[in-house]
Every structure is written in C-alpha cells, then in structure tokens.
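Researcher: Last one for today. Full complex below.
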Amino acid sequence: MFLKKIEMENFKSFGKKTVVEFRKGYTSITGPNASGKSNIGDALLFVLGTKSNKSLRAQKLTDLIHRNNSGRLSPYLKASVTFDNSDKSIPLESNEVTFSRIVKLSENNDDYSSYYFINDDRARLQDFEYLLEKAKIFADGYNFVRQGDITSIVEMTPVERRGILEEVG
Amino acid sequence: MFLKKIEMENFKSFGKKTVVEFRKGYTSITGPNASGKSNIGDALLFVLGTKSNKSLRAQKLTDLIHRNNSGRLSPYLKASVTFDNSDKSIPLESNEVTFSRIVKLSENNDDYSSYYFINDDRARLQDFEYLLEKAKIFADGYNFVRQGDITSIVEMTPVERRGILEEVG
Amino acid sequence: KKIVFLDVFQKVNANYIEIYKELTNGGEGYLYLENPTNPFEGGLFVKASSKGKKVDNLASLSGGEKSLAALSFIIAIQEYDPSPIYFMDEVDMFLDGVNAENVGRMFRRNSDSAQIIAVTLRKSTMKYAHQAIGVTYQDRSSMVVTKEMQVEEQVVP
Amino acid sequence: KKIVFLDVFQKVNANYIEIYKELTNGGEGYLYLENPTNPFEGGLFVKASSKGKKVDNLASLSGGEKSLAALSFIIAIQEYDPSPIYFMDEVDMFLDGVNAENVGRMFRRNSDSAQIIAVTLRKSTMKYAHQAIGVTYQDRSSMVVTKEMQVEEQVVP
Ligand SMILES: Nc1ncnc2c1ncn2[C@@H]1O[C@H](COP(=O)(O)OP(=O)(O)OP(=O)(O)O)[C@@H](O)[C@H]1O
Ligand SMILES: Nc1ncnc2c1ncn2[C@@H]1O[C@H](COP(=O)(O)OP(=O)(O)OP(=O)(O)O)[C@@H](O)[C@H]1O
Ligand SMILES: [Mg+2]
Ligand SMILES: [Mg+2]
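Model: Here's the assembly. Have a good evening.
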C-alpha cells in the first residue's frame, strides 16, 4: 500500500484546488518559507489523524479554511488522501481507496459541519477510523514527524522521554 | 573598540593552544557539527560574561577544562580576549587590552582556583567587571545570541516575552 | 506493564544503536534507563558521541550532535512498529552538510520498504530523492510542481 | 517603572517594524501589548506577515516566518542599546535561501557600526562576510583556519 495523492481545496494556504501526486520510494518536498510545505503535512493529519491529538496549528477547525487577504473565509474546505490498495492492507475491494474530509461553514458562518467520505460515499467517522486503524496508517506515534519534534525531544526531561516509549508499547 | 583575538588553551574542545583572530566588520564562523564553533562563543562568555547567568553548557566550571578521550582533565584552562582600545572605550592607557581568565585544578583534582588578568597583571574580579561594564561589552542581553535563542523566543509565552523587554529597560 | 516496557526499551535501544552508528559514520550511541529494575521511577537517558570522541549525555553535545541523536531516537521508534508511510518535516535542520547527506542516504535506503516523504530545505538531503515536489506561493495561493529526479540528478548511495 | 517600560517598548517596536520589513523584503510586522495601559498585567505579542499576506500572531506562522520574526525581535533589542560587538550563533537555521541571504546582507550593512561575528552553516549567510573562520576537529582538538574573503568571493549588497 502506498500514498498516491493528496488533494486540497480551500485548505489553509491552498486557495486553489491542488493535487499533489506521490510515487513509491523517497519523495522530497521543498520550497520557500511559508510556501505551504508543512500545510501539506497538516492535510495528511487532518484526513488521517482524526484520533490523533497532534496539533494542526489551528485553534479551531474553521481556522483551516482558506482565508483570502481581506480575511474572508471560503464556504468550505475539502481534503482527500488516496492510497493504492493492491495489497488490500485496507480491507476494501477497490485497488484504490480515497479518504476525504469536508468542513463546511453554516449559513451564518458561526458554526460548521464535518463530513467524511470513503471513495465518494458518505461514511460515519467510526468506519473511517476503523479502516485507517486496520491499515496501520498514521497511528499516533512518530510516523509523522513535525517541524519542531527534533527540538522537543532534545529539550524534554528524561521522564518525558520515557513516557514516549511507554506510549509506543 | 573592536575584538582582535580570542586565545584558548585547554578550553573545552580546544586541547591545543589556539588563537582566533578577528578584524572589524562582519566575520563568519563555520565548520562541521561538533567542531568547536559554539565553544568559541562559550570562551567569549567565560571571559567577558562573569556577571551573566548565561549557561556555558557546563554543570561546573571544571567541566570547561579540556578532557582527552580517556577522560583525563588537563591541569588548567586559560582563555583570553584581546580588544583594540584606540578609542579608549576601556578606561585604560593601553591601545590594546587583554582580559584573561584561568581555572586551575588543585593538587588533588577535587577543587579549583579562579584567576583573572588584565594585560598579564593579576586583577581582582571586581576590577575586571568594572572595566567590562565601562566598555559596555557583553552586558547581559541579546548582544550574545546563543544557538537555540531563536527557538526559545518563538516558544515563550507573551508574559515571558514582556519580561525580556523589562530587563532591557 | 513493566515487562512490556522493558521489552519495548530493549528493541528500540537496539535500533537506536544501529541507526546512530549509520547516521554518524561510526559514532557510538545508546539509550539507558535511570532505574533499570524499576523503570517507571526514573527517566530515559540518551547517550551519544561522535566517532572518536567519548560518549556524553545528550545535554552536553553540540547542536548538530543533539539533533542527530534525537532523529536516531525517532527513527528507532519508527522501526519498532513500522508504518507503510512516513512524513518527516525538516528533521535535518541543525545538521552540517555531511550529516544531512547521511540522513538523505538513509531515507533513500529505507524507502525500499516504506514510502518516505520528507520536507527539507537542504540540497544534501534532497538529492537522494526519487522525486522532488516544489511548493511555491503565487497569486495568493500555494501551488505545487512535481519533478521526477533525472537519473543523472539522483544520487544513488 | 511603567513609564520606563512603555518608552523601551516604543523604541524597540519602532526598531522591530523597520528590521522586519528589511529582512522580509517588505513584510509587515509589529509588537503590541495585551494591556497597553497596564502593561505588567499582560503579555507582549509579536505580529508578523510575509509581503502580501495578512498579519498573523506569531504562533500561526510557518517555521521560517516565526524564526525571522524572532530574529527581528532580537535585533530590535540590540539596536535599542547598541554594543560594539555582537556574537550570533546559528540564527539562520529555519530560513530558506532568500531569507538567509537577507540576514547575511543585514549583518554586512550593520557591520559598519559594530563588529558582527556570526556562526552559520549556510552559504547564503556566509557569503556576505568580510572574513571567514573555519573550525575543524582534528587530532582530538578543535582547530581554526582564518580566510580573508577575496573581493571576488565577497558579495557586496
Ligand atoms: N486558513 C488559512 N488561510 C490562508 N493562509 C493560511 C491559512 N492557514 C495558514 N496559512 C498560511 O500558510 C503559511 C504557512 O504555510 P506552511 O507552514 O506550510 O509553510 P512552510 O512551507 O512549511 O514554511 P517553512 O519553511 O517556513 O516551515 C503561512 O504564511 C500562513 O499564513
Ligand atoms: N571539556 C571538554 N573537553 C573536551 N571536549 C569537549 C569539552 N566540552 C565540550 N567538548 C566537545 O565540544 C564539542 C561541541 O563543540 P561545539 O558545541 O562548539 O560544536 P559546534 O561546532 O557548535 O557544533 P554544531 O554545529 O553542532 O552546533 C562536543 O563534541 C563536545 O564533546
Ligand atoms: Mg514548515
Ligand atoms: Mg554550535
């Protein structure tokens, strides 16, 4: 199983619908400061890390919705992650599985709704999470290393570091 | 007034007597990880920052003494900082002023003595500090920016940040 | 609980020793428990040294050495419970050119058994990639350009 | 006490605005007090944005933007109470090539009025120096080589 693409629409700095394609092996992502590199990682976490408590660098979910320069929010955001599933790591028939998540602002902009999709079919959060767990994708842990994790490991106390190993087991 | 040279003898990773010369203007220091770049900064702080509480990354003063690979300590360490004093920022006659500091292990290696020198004359710590204060050299503050200071400013709370400005005034 | 923890510790430590040696071209590093019989009563210490230097506690190392030790710790944990995909955001920040290259090579090698996606600003790390994605900010939106690394551009370790 | 503090704040903020604009080629940044009438009852916030983007609080910026804002804050404090010598250890770590160059250029310009010594691993920062000191570790000791930057090698901003 491997990641084939990430699609973002109105997600953080990605105001235009963007598709990022991946292949097997080692892919590097680079670009200027504030171009959106870490935001791509946030999109992965946003879709796949629903059980994770890792910060998406946003105080509330609606902060993830693309804001243009006058501060106006888009009406919704959508992020999708597509996997090649030929080895059936994800217990579904299809050779390709797409997990999507939508956050839509309500009419008066003061509330929002969350929607989950598996291959374009509306899904409940628990089915979503069940599949991800079966495929062992981005469980909490260090499969997803964020900007600043290195420094925090260096600075944490020995007891906190032991705590990390406790969580691993 | 400007820094002319730093001399180190048995100071941290500088096991051989080393002279680092500087000129006016902008000097860059580079080299591989763990080569000794930050240790040069520690030498500056060690000599000029006697009143500063900034860490020299050593738990006790004797940790600064060069240790060879079998862990044996040298009997003493010496670090000196020499300034051009043509503008008499330092209230002394000489056009060149050297501040030196020695830490010497006692016979049985379990205690140490600290000595201060101004231009090769033995000096008391208060005269040493008085001259540095007059010349406004490395007072506590951000004239000396250490590896990690940037991150700590980013991570500190707004109240701590206000505290920095309080100390400036 | 203790038995489980000590088992995890053993395996992660074994990984750590090997990974640290590889990233530092022969340096020696290991983890140890302050209280091996009652691990929950003490902390976990990281020891590391560069090749030819004596081993020190994490706090007394240089900035780059600390960073390499922390990264080895992270990768040691990853290898304990492997995942099909890893996302690493700027883990090479404090490293000089040589050490950044070692990281790039390790990513390349490890990408046989897992997909590795690494955000980096450093050429030394990037040059070992199979493909490179460039991100820029234009017309008030981020955008992405994908480039397959030409065989001449790729560096195969 | 309050009067002294507010005066320091005004001057450091004025410095910050200018320095941040220079380091980001036109970006807008400023400091503000949570409680301007009773400053000691609130914190000090750092606002920053890249050119063309809206201004945000420090915490919501990218890694490089945060680093540039923090560096501007540090330099703003330096300029409030100038020193004849500044020692900066790896302040360009999170910066991309363009931003690191801006820092190198600022060091070069500011070195008219003060001596600036900067430890850096980045060519973009180093190339603006008047002289370059190389540090290596050989035969179990650190050693130093000084190189005057040739006129062709130097980049004069
Ligand atoms: N909801 C949003 N709408 C518009 N822009 C946003 C939103 N959330 C974040 N941003 C912008 O995204 C940018 C940060 O992107 P990101 O963190 O991905 O940068 P980066 O490429 O990782 O940079 P660095 O190299 O500095 O770490 C910031 O400029 C921020 O203003
Ligand atoms: N008392 C001592 N005796 C011998 N070596 C020492 C002593 N104190 C520190 N060292 C060594 O000095 C080295 C660290 O040097 P320093 O911090 O100057 O590195 P650096 O060049 O700044 O590296 P980086 O780029 O990683 O920050 C470490 O390898 C450490 O083992
Ligand atoms: Mg980033
Ligand atoms: Mg250093």
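Residues B 37-38, 147; C 62-63; D 89 surround magnesium ion (ligand 4) (CB under 6 Å). The beta strands of chain C are 29-33, 44-48, 56-57, 85-89, 115-119, 131-138, 141-148.
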